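Posting here for the record, re: magnesium ion.
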Amino acid sequence: EAKQAGRNRFCFFEQSMNQRVHEHLLVLQGIDQALAEHQLFLEYQPVFDLQRDVISGAEALVRWRHPRQGLVSPASFIPIVEESDRIEALTLWVLTQACRDLRDRILPRAPGFKLSLNVSGVALQSDSLRDRVLETLSREGVSPASLRLEITETTMMRDIEKSAETLKLWQQAGLRILIDDFGTGYSSLSYLTSLPIDGLKIDRSFISQLQQSSQGPVVDAILALSRTLGIETIAEGIETQEQLQLLRQMRASHGQGYLLGRPMPVSQLRTLLEHPQPLHHSGIMS
Ligand code: C2E
Ligand code: MG
Ligand code: MG
Ligand code: MG
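Prediction output follows.
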């Protein structure tokens, strides 16, 4: 019986390993084609100035419309791509596309708009990416001051000194640097002193538990810390009016979440910028 169970377990393990390997191969074989054949596209989630009740910017989020798998979530393919050298091509594709949308479709409607892009921590290790990011901005004619780079820590940064060097160069060029998912296992307080940081994005896990329990003081403390350091904060994943009110009471400056607006095509973002809705009516936007 035990032998039987052991065998089953082994089979199960073997199968899930195979599945994982298979999934990895599918993604890595498919990503070049995705880039070449326009299977990737961007959606934009509005970021609100919580004190002034206006949209101050948006976060660009990549999507993959796979010819056979359908819509694939970045949460499933980014971790695989960032373990390969293809992360560089993907990052530059996102940057180029975002620059064009910003320049042609967003900035004409909203001059002070700030667009956030996700850059995976592993991509910071690449010398060529470091230079090509700035080259892309000047080629596309977009001012670095309109962009923010969210450093996502899906895997720990391999070389923190190298990362700091790259980020410093980008910051000197006028880009602003945010730490994404702040407070989770992947980010750490030590980044605040070892990296050039302009802001923190407070992870959704803190915001979703804001009412229930001990998370309130934690968010309050992150906000206080940011004020002391003179950096900005963006609360992620605001889903309820209660969370929004609590964050306002804590004097949080910026926020995003399904309550305020879901990720949307650029055309829809443009409409929203042309016909702004007061925040307390914003439930109808999501
Ligand atoms: P992230 O940068 O932390 O992005 C926020 C994620 O939370 C997005 O998921 C967004 O759709 C989702 N979200 C926003 N508001 C809410 C809310 O109120 N409730 C809930 N439950 N979720 C909310 P998405 O688009 O699936 O992206 C997942 C992750 O994939 C991102 O997390 C980011 O780490 C990564 N990613 C997305 N686009 C890119 C990209 O262009 N480059 C890189 N390197 N990573 C990307
Ligand atoms: Mg992000
Ligand atoms: Mg995040
Ligand atoms: Mg995340």
